[in-house]
Each structure stands twice: as structure tokens, then as C-alpha cells.
Design a protein that fits this description.
Length: 262
């Protein structure tokens, strides 16, 4: 009943405009109007008017040479302004810069959005040759060490809502496909309190990941460093873990989290 009442107040034009914008993604960065129309559930004339409106407002841009559409600068601006508005990003940026300086490793801050992680802050180590992600990059949550740590905050029912099928999505060679195996791995990560991923997402790259908690004690984000090696040397492991752990604790404190130790 509540959903039916809420639907009475929906604005059809806004709903259609957002449908069109959401049609763009990694597999559809540029599309002709015909390609775009095939992906949305609305009459052709309606879709045409919506596209014209979005182009006029700067949310879509037309390439006159190929007559294709792509997301406009207004969409990018909204995304970056949202990321910049996050308290965790503001609190975390100087901390991960210090972490980079102390560990000599590239450092990142990421959050979860559904089945994706989003990088909201990053700094590169001097002379790093690792192919770096940029702020705003999305990756599948189940494929990365950062995502595993972010999943430690979800319940079993929430986990199954995220992954309703027993086989996990994707077709990347070497990735984890079994939902139950992922759940068990996440529970081990939760009990341990951190993740060390050695060639988990990318061969030859290791990571150390710790959670950032908000004032409610929920996992708000994760802090990580990238170590350019198949395995983290035992001589450096404890030191690097301590550096990442202290960075996560510092950002958690900025967000109002009081640990049991405090």
C-alpha cells in the first residue's frame, strides 16, 4: 500500500529522463538514438523528446560526426560533487596521503554502492608503475579485496539480495564464481578484521585492506594500499598492516566512531 501511494507522486518525465541516463554504462558509452531507444521502455516519440531535453540541459552530448550520444559534463559534475560532499572522502584524503608517504605504496579509499565499489579518493606512490584507478572508478564488489571487506557489513539476507544466484556474475578468468564460497570468505575476513589479497584481483599485485567505521559502528568505507608483488614480504607485512590499520582508525575517529579500546 505504501509503495502504491508513493507511486502517485512520481514525475513521469523525470522518471523517463533518469531511465535514459541509466542506460549508459561501461558497455554503452556512446549510442545512437536507435540504440538508446532499444534499451528503454518508452514510446519512440517520448524518448526523442527526453533525449532532446537532456541534451539541451547538458546531461547528454551529441557527437555531430557520428550522430551518437554520450553522458554530458553535467552528469560528471553531479558525480564528482557527490563524492566531494562525502565526509569520509574529505576526512580521508589527507590521511591516505600520509599513508602513502609512510608505506611508500599507492593508497585508496572506497565505498560500496550495491554490487560495486567506488573509489572516492586515491594517491599514487612516487614512481609507481601500477595501472591506477581514478576517482569514481567502479569495480565488482565480489572481485576485489576492498569489496570483500565492504561486504563484511551485510547480513546473510542482504547478501542474498545482492547475489540472488548461486553463480556470481562475470566471466573474468580466475575470478570467484561460487556465492557460498564468497560468503564464507567474507565471514573469515570479518572475524580477522582486515583483508590481505595477494594477486586476488590482478596477478602480481597485492593489497592490504582495513575497514573505516562511522559513528554507528557500520562499515562506511575501506582504506587500502597496493603492494607491487605476488606476495607481501614477511619482513614488511606487519609494518604495512599497522600503517593501514592506523589510517583506518584515524578516519573512523574523524567520522565519530569510538572503538572499544577508546
Amino acid at each position: 500500500m505504501a509503495d502504491e501511494q508513493a507511486c502517485k507522486y512520481l514525475i513521469p518525465g523525470l522518471d523517463r529522463g533518469l531511465q535514459l541516463l541509466l542506460a549508459f554504462g561501461e558497455q554503452h558509452k556512446e549510442m545512437t538514438f536507435a540504440e538508446l531507444h532499444r534499451l528503454v521502455d518508452m514510446p519512440k516519440a517520448t524518448a526523442y523528446r527526453v533525449v532532446q531535453t537532456l541534451e539541451h540541459l547538458g546531461f547528454l552530448e551529441r557527437n555531430p560526426r557520428t550522430n551518437t550520444f554520450a553522458l554530458g559534463i553535467k552528469v560528471l559534475r553531479l558525480g564528482f560533487e557527490y563524492i566531494a560532499s562525502l565526509d569520509v572522502a574529505q576526512a580521508g584524503q589527507p590521511v591516505i596521503e600520509q599513508l602513502r608517504d609512510r608505506s611508500q605504496c599507492s593508497s585508496h579509499l572506497a565505498i560500496r554502492d550495491g554490487r560495486d565499489i567506488i573509489y572516492i579518493a586515491r594517491v599514487s606512490a612516487a614512481g609507481s608503475r601500477i595501472n591506477q584507478v581514478s576517482v569514481g572508478t567502479r569495480l565488482p564488489v565480489h572481485c576485489t579485496s576492498l569489496g570483500r571487506m565492504l561486504l563484511t557489513d551485510v547480513s546473510r539476507s542482504e547478501f542474498e539480495q545482492l547475489f540472488p544466484d548461486e553463480r556470481l556474475p562475470g566471466n573474468t578468468p580466475g575470478q570467484l564464481y561460487d556465492r557460498e564460497a564468497l560468503w564464507q570468505m567474507v565471514q573469515q575476513d570479518k572475524a580477522r578484521g582486515y583483508v590481505i589479497g595477494e594477486s586476488f584481483y590482478r596477478h602480481g599485485i597485492s593489497s592490504i585492506v582495513y575497514p573505516v567505521f562511522n559513528r554507528s559502528g557500520r562499515v562506511a568505507a575501506v582504506v587500502s594500499i597496493l603492494v607491487p608483488s605476488d606476495e607481501i614480504p614477511q619482513s614488511d607485512r606487519e609494518r604495512l598492516q599497522n600503517e593501514v590499520s592506523m589510517a583506518a582508525d584515524k578516519i573512523s575517529g574523524f567520522l565519530g566512531y569510538l572503538s572499544q579500546a577508546s
